[in-house]
Amino acid sequence: MKTLVNIISREHPLAAYLFVKEYYEEGDKLVFIAANENFDCITPLVNALQINKEVVQRVVLRRDADSYTYERICRLINNVLDKDGNYYVNLAGGTRYIALSVQHVLSNYHAKFFYTQTKQNLIVKTIFDNSIYDNDDEIYPIRYKMSLPEYFKIHGLEHDIDVPKTFISDEEQAKRMFDMFANKKLWASDYKVMDVLREKYRNWKYIDIHEVETTINDSMIPIPNLSKFLEHIEFEPATKGMLQREELEYLTGGWFEEYVFYLINNSLHPDDIAIGVHIDGCTEIQHNNELDVCFIKNNQLFVIECKTGINSQSMFNEIVYKVSALKEVLLGISCHSYIFSLKKDHTGDMKKIARYMDVTFCDFYCLTKEEKLTKELKKMAAIARN
């Protein structure tokens, strides 16, 4: 039997979670150390671990001074330790000052020290002694692979990933749509049809195709070329003569999300992948917390915002801000954020703006030029390397 000791922080609960997943055995105990502002992060972590709460002990640095006064930190930690205990100590997470205090106190006990390096998906086992030349550090790959629901749960996020998502069409249809956009096979009338569908009908429960084509109703905008458009892109509605809301969403951009889903799934073979996931966990950005495409590979989370078109610089800035805010406030430092778009970034300014906000922007040229796309996908694979 042993006790696993972890320092908890809101920004990086993943380090503690993966450490426990690697080393916890039946009969072990857990100690979580957290500053007061990070105290509420412990419960989602314990719930995600699905471990008996009776074996969990919390050390909370309640007052401000408790989190930066060395002697107070040491006393609080020392009070919960057993001189005959056997400790596995993870020094990742929290402030450096707290980590130093934890390391100092536990050095007086039967303790082994580790550092969970989540970016590299590794755990380093080290010995704190007077020799730095005996190369006695040991490095282990993290074998455990998280799912998307696990990642969201340890970050305290509600999600609807378990609700089945219906793909409107198959992979070939999504590829056909992409090919038509990429290779200028759409007619001018096709773009007009999509614009009206997006602006007027996207949120309707359904539309009658013949009615929309021939309407003289003042509350409806006619689309005389709607049937011609559907025939051109080879799209067959599920109900003849009707377009349901999901199909309207698909025709006005949803197809691109499905295309990116298939692209990532076939190229990177994620451990888990989903489309159209809604998350909630912070009132500051509750207005539209939808992840178009998200996937996890080797415990690294990737989130891709999909936009067929970006009409203005201000619109692009809003998209970048949203993607960056989702990462910073909700998804944690192990999240890698992307924007995939068919917008042409002629000057490269959009890529620079996105990069400044720690977001990768893949534009029309990146997605349509095989060499550029392959290079970007290899970068993503490298981030997720084991």
Record keyword descriptors for this entry:
six-stranded mixed beta sheet; alpha/beta; 386 residues; 40% helix; 14 helices
Describe the structure in your own words.
- The chain is α/β, with parallel strands linked by helices.
- The chain is built from 14 helices and 15 strands.
- The strands form three sheets. The chain has a seven-stranded mixed sheet. The protein has a six-stranded mixed sheet with strand order 8-11-12-13-14-15, with helices on both faces. Strands 9-10 form a two-stranded antiparallel sheet.
- Helix 3 (70-78) crosses helix 4 (96-106), helix 6 (171-182) crosses helix 10 and helix 7 packs across helix 10.
- The radius of gyration is 26 Å and the shape is elongated.
- The protein starts with a strand and ends with a helix.
SSE map:
Blueprint: E1 3-8, H1 14-23, E2 29-35, H2 42-49, E3 56-61, H3 70-78, E4 86-90, H4 96-106, E5 110-117, E6 122-126, E7 138-141, H5 148-154, E8 158-159, H6 171-182, H7 188-201, E9 206-208, H8 209-214, H9 226-232, E10 242-244, H10 245-268, E11 272-280, E12 290-297, E13 300-307, H11 313-331, E14 335-341, H12 349-356, E15 359-362, H13 364-368, H14 370-383
Parallel strand pairs: 1-2, 1-4, 2-3, 4-5, 13-14, 14-15
Antiparallel strand pairs: 5-6, 6-7, 8-11, 9-10, 11-12, 12-13
Helix pairs in contact: 3-4, 6-10, 7-10
